[in-house]
C-alpha cells in the first residue's frame, strides 16, 4: 500500500474530513522526496553543485540544511493548508499570507543530524502538526502548545533506504521509498516498540557534567546489579537515526541536561515532541526528567528540554531514579 492510499483510508474513517490533511501530508511527502534526492547526491556536491560547495561553474551553492529548509517552507506554503511554520533553521516563525492560509501549523527540523552529512551517515527530517481549531487569526499561541495536542507527527530518515515514519494519533506506521516507483510503500505496519530493550543511546562524552540520576542510570546499563546482562551502547549522533533504531529494536535514547546545558540540547517543538508522540503511539514512554514530555508547555519556539525516551520499562527505570532523587532532596 502506498502512503497516499494509506492516508486516504485514514481520511475515509473520518466522515467530517474534507481532505485538507491528506493534501498537507502529500506536500510533506514531496518535501521528503526532494530532500532525499539532494542527500543522495551530497557526495557528488562538488561536481553537480549542491550543498554549500562551489560547483564546476564556480557558483556558490546552498548548504543542504538551508536547501532542505527552503524546500519544506515552499512545499508547506504551496499546499494552501498551513498558517504557521516553525523551522529549526528560522529564528522567527513564518506566518502564511491570508490568500494561501489553511488551518494547520507545522513545526519541523528540516535536516536533523546535519553534522553527519559529510561522512554519509543517516540524517533526517522531523515534523509535528497542530491544528488551529476555530477561525481566529493565527498567533504564536497556536504552536506554543503541549505536544499531546499535536494531531500528527513523524520523521523521514535519509539512510541506506529512505524511510518515513508517521503517526496520525492511532498507532505508528513506517513507509519505505521505492526509488524506481517514486512512492513510499507501507513496509512497517503498526510499529510497537519492545517493552524493554538491550540498547542505550547517549553521548557519553558529556558524562562528567551529568546529574545523579542520569549517571546512576548509565552505570546500571553497564554494570547491572539485578543479574541481567549489560546493555549495548549505540550512538550515531543523528536523533532521527538513534530514535528509529530505538523504535524498532527497543531500548532508550537519552539527551539529558548537564552542567553546561541545564536544558539539554534538543528542541521541544520539532525534536522532543514529534519523537515523544511517536514513542507513546508505539507503546513506549518519553520523560523530561521532571514530567511526561508531551505535557510540557513551551514558552518560546526554540525552547530546549532534556529527554529520555524509548521502551516503557527502560523509561520507567530512569523515572524511578529521578523520583528517588526528588524524595531525598
Ligand atoms: O553531538 P551531540 O551533542 O551528541 O548531539 C547530537 C544531537 O544533535 C542533533 O544533531 C541536533 O540536530 P540538528 O542537526 O538538527 O541541529 C541531533 O540530531 C542529535 O541527537
Ligand atoms: Mg535536529
Ligand atoms: Mg536540523
TrEMBL record:
Q: Which InterPro entries match?
A: FBPase_C_dom, FBPase_class-1, FBPase_N, FBPtase, Fructose_bisphosphatase_AS
Question: Major place of localization?
Answer: cytoplasm
Q: Which residues form the Fructose-1-6-bisphosphatase class I N-terminal domain?
A: 1-189
Q: Mention one GO biological process in which this protein takes part, according to its record.
A: fructose 1,6-bisphosphate metabolic process
* Keyword Magnesium attributed: yes
Molecular-function GO term, any one = metal ion binding
Name any GO cellular component annotation: cytosol
**What is the catalytic activity of this protein?**
beta-D-fructose 1,6-bisphosphate + H2O = beta-D-fructose 6-phosphate + phosphate
The family database entries (PANTHER family) matched by this protein are listed as:
FRUCTOSE-1,6-BISPHOSPHATASE, CYTOSOLIC, FRUCTOSE-1,6-BISPHOSPHATASE-RELATED
CDD domains hit by this protein: FBPase
Q: Which Gene3D superfamilies match?
A: 3.40.190.80, Fructose-1,6-Bisphosphatase, subunit A, domain 1
Q: Which cofactor does it need?
A: Mg(2+)
- Cellular location(s): Cytoplasm
Q: Per its UniProt entry, which superkingdom is the organism in?
A: Eukaryota
Name the record gives this protein: Fructose-1,6-bisphosphatase, cytosolic
